User: Fold this.
Amino acid sequence: MAIWTHYYIPQTLDEALSLLCREPQSKAIAGGTDLLLELQQGRHPPVRTLVDLSQIAALQRLEMSQGALWIGASVPLNRVIAWPPVRHFATALCEAISLIGGPQVRNVATLGGNVAHALPAADGAIALLALDAQVLVASPEGQRLQPLLACYAGPGKTALQRAEIIVAFQVPACEKEEASAFRRVMRPQGVAIAIENMGIWLRRKDERIEDIRIAVGPSGPMPFRARQTEQVLRGKPLDEETLAEAEKVLKSEARFRTSPHRATAEYRYHLAGVLLRQTLQTAWERTQLNFAEELGPLSVKG
Ligand SMILES: Cc1cc2nc3c(=O)[nH]c(=O)nc-3n(C[C@H](O)[C@H](O)[C@H](O)COP(=O)(O)OP(=O)(O)OC[C@H]3O[C@@H](n4cnc5c(N)ncnc54)[C@H](O)[C@@H]3O)c2cc1C
Assistant:
């Protein structure tokens, strides 16, 4: 049985927006790696019309401009990883995307879909949050730039309206003494969502953490910023005393729960400390690298 009736491939953003407004029960589709599975498995309300976003030039942008990377929402993940500025200036994002699915999935899956699917531990979303990405959203009323978390309404629930399209992500490029890292723990047989993941961005000055952002998933209904832990770390040297205090605060502010298919809450609390120490250490060491070539191999999954 067909799971949709009409499939449109618009060439412009305006065309896509008017199709989504005009057609009842319509839905945007990019790589389809989340949406088609949900439709096939009956986990999504019926859809009559699919509006394919893959041919719209505005959503295929990969560009550095005024200290920021602009990553089009429909650029396939493999193309994002292959773009050197992501590796150089947004390393956590490059690492996170490299771990999503396998090569076949990454050939079609997109960052727009990763965020619009709204899972609290989506790898791309966690890295984007740590990097303080802004989201360019188009609607029939015009375009707006908004914080990443404004795209979320709850677990698996986007705050975006049906006729709103993510056009691109604006990611501030890391400057001198700044760096980022991403880590996750999966079940050995797992392919989709991490037991836990973490992205960290930091700025190092005079052997102290001058500024830091920590994103964790899945802690609560949407990607989580560990702001109290960040506050503990700001201005401190990276020594055992600081790490122990940060680990304690992270475990008190994060909200992990037991999920029958992945892990117990207890295990996730334990992992939070491990991921915090490892990710922080990696980001800290990277602040000393002058050239991205010195980064060495990232954890790219083949
Ligand atoms: C085998 C497999 C392994 C996977 N492994 C991982 C993993 O390790 N980590 C991980 O995080 N995810 C994983 N995923 C999930 C998935 O691949 C990602 O979430 C992917 O980034 C989704 O992008 P997509 O283009 O396929 O989205 P689609 O399935 O096309 O769309 C998903 C949702 O986003 C909406 N949407 C898409 N683009 C836009 C846009 N530009 N504006 C507004 N709404 C939009 C759609 O309407 C739909 O609701 C895996 C999936 C599979 C099948």
Q: What stands out?
A: The longest strand covers residues 196-205. Residues 27-35, 37, 53, 73-74, 99-101, 105, 109-110, 112-114, 116-117, 122-124, 160, 165-166, 191-192 surround flavin-adenine dinucleotide (CB under 6 Å).
